[in-house]
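Might you be able to check the backbone structure tokens below? Thank you kindly.
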Amino acid sequence: MTDVLRRGRVSLAFGFFAQGVAFALLVTRIPAIQDRYGISDALLPVFLAAVPILAGVGSVATGRLVRRVRPSRLLRWSQPVVLLALLGVGAGHRVAVLAVALAAFGLAVGALDASMNMLGVSLQRSYGRSIMLGFHAAYSMGGILGASLAWAGAHWGLALWVSYLPVVVALLPAALVGSRWYVDGDGGAGAGGAEELRKGMSGGVGFKVLLPLCLVMSFAYIGDSTVSNWSAKYLQDVLGGSEQLATVPYNVYMVTTLVGRAFGDLGVRRFGAAAVVRGGAVVAAGGFAVVAGAPGAWAGMLGFTLVGLGLCVLVPQTFAAAGRLAAERDGRPGASDAAVARLNVFNYVGFLIGSPLVGALGDAWSYRGAMLVPMVLVLVTVVYARSFEVEADRYGGGHERPRTADVGRGSNGL
């Protein structure tokens, strides 16, 4: 199984990477999409909100579909839909076409996010050590590439479909080929394993048990959406930075997120997930405090950099903790997948809440004061760090190794 797991890990990392590219290409070209379809400023928030709402629907549907369909199959076919929907956004001319393309994108992204993290959690359990942060590092790397390609397209005045088509042509066949090596939680146990997987999905962990992790996920994405949507405006309008300098914080945030995730698994193995989550929450909260009190643009940029280093560890470890908690409370195969699907919905909840919350507080009060809200919410994560403690015992310092049978069975051995 060593080669099987290794190929599964590489192929899944590429899936995360491709998703990062596609999502960045969409969100960073929103002004161009608005201009292409003639969408008013009043109508634009409706389109933007529809994507995470439909993604939440797709995630919930995935939690039900994996009772009968392996997560690897859902991932194999949802990824092409995401890429083709992206191309549809760039190639259409009518608002109705945009609505259909964004609806397909949102539903497929929900299925894609849920199934990717299901496979990531089960692979981590089979490996017996923390590898989830590495998958999310691949996503961050894809996001950096996608944002860079979007900048190049905008700089050279390329039509949206011209910018999107080469990416889809390159990633779509590569993703389909790589999907041949995805590894499901049952370790490819065949029809009998699939039947046990379906039985496991009929139970699962209740929402009350997952609530602390759901809150951590929401708080992390409230912080993330604050940076992605408000960092440029804050640096320019509040801290007096230039228009050119205002484009830098989010790029720096993405790079520090990549760096933090690339080395984060080593921290989890050495100190345990609970300690890493506590440290990440404190660093992120400190970053928001620096942003709120920054005397100038460069100090604000330092704050956003700290936010990236702190937030980057929270989401991957929250998925891993949900899978572990489900395995402990309900040892049947598939319980972990159900927990991941439920938790993934709160990714979109945080995204929907974060940006409007900061904007409303900024307009009614002050943007400096508004930055204190994600600071407090992220700091609350420290209170819930106990939910990650068993994960720390399992992966921290290599104190526990997986049994041979567990490696052979994947998540059947949880």
Observations:
- The CA atoms of residues 289 and 372 lie 7 Å apart.
- Confidence is low (pLDDT under 50) at residues 187-203, 391-414.
- The radius of gyration is 21 Å.
- Residues 95-127 form the longest helix (33 residues).
